[in-house]
Specification:
This protein is α/β, with parallel strands linked by helices. It has one domain: Glutaredoxin (3-Layer(aba) Sandwich), CATH 3.40.30. It contains eight helices and seven strands. Strands 2-1-5-4-3-6-7 form a seven-stranded mixed β-sheet. The two termini are 33 Å apart. This is NXNL1 protein.
């Protein structure tokens, strides 16, 4: 996932000097589900959704709610009109949020890449950058933190805190509902991946 932000910087929430280097980004984004939150502190719909997203994120990552943080990271992609507006909004959000610097032209590239035309929008990505959910706003409203489990399995994350080396081959069978979640959140392979898979199948045959 760090490849998505190669050559870019992300700032830590409310920490002006806390600019993520490429190496730090690799550690911050590795083996995690990434949420790209496109929003604005001035948008009425965003003001309604932001407290829901804040609660969603805290319940998965804050030690007050969980013993250990979930494999989740969020990057705020602002549509605020001024840097002051963006800063004011972020001050009301969790400290673990990251943000694209205000005025960064990469924002427009992300909007085009993921088809974001209106806010609020939450794009859910696997660690390899493939899309799990194009816009998870309604899913987060409806299911709350429960939907993270679906994304985690669809992203095929390795839970390194619990798995032993001999368990890595079996990690994807952790849940009886796993096949259904994989079907719902199926990630389409690229043409190159499909071609490679057919070639490998032919070699095995």
């Amino acid at each position: 996932m760090a490849a998505l932000f190669t050559g870019k910087v992300l700032t830590g929430n409310r920490e002006r000097d806390d600019v993520e280097t490429e190496r730090e980004l690799g550690r911050a984004l590795e083996n995690k589900v990434l949420l790209l939150y496109f929003g604005s502190g001035q948008c009425p719909r965003c003001r309604q959704f932001a407290p829901i997203l804040k609660d969603f994120f805290l319940r998965l990552t804050d030690e007050f709610y969980v013993e250990r943080a979930s494999q989740l990271v969020l990057v705020y992609v602002s549509r605020d009109e001024t840097e002051e507006q963006q800063s004011a909004f972020l001050r009301s959000m969790p400290r673990r949020w990251l943000a694209l610097p205000f005025g960064d032209a990469f924002k427009r590239e992300l909007e085009l890449r993921f088809g974001v035309s209106e806010v609020p929008a939450v794009v859910v990505l696997r660690p390899d950058g493939q899309v799990i959910v194009g816009n998870a706003v309604e899913e987060i409203r409806r299911a709350g933190p429960a939907c993270f489990r679906n994304w985690q399995e669809a992203a095929e994350l390795v839970d390194r805190n619990f798995l032993l080396a001999e368990d890595f081959d079996e990690w994807s069978r952790r849940s009886i509902t796993d096949p259904f979640r994989r079907l719902k959140y199926r990630v389409e392979k690229t043409p190159e991946e499909k071609k490679k898979g057919r070639k490998e199948d032919g070699e095995e045959a």
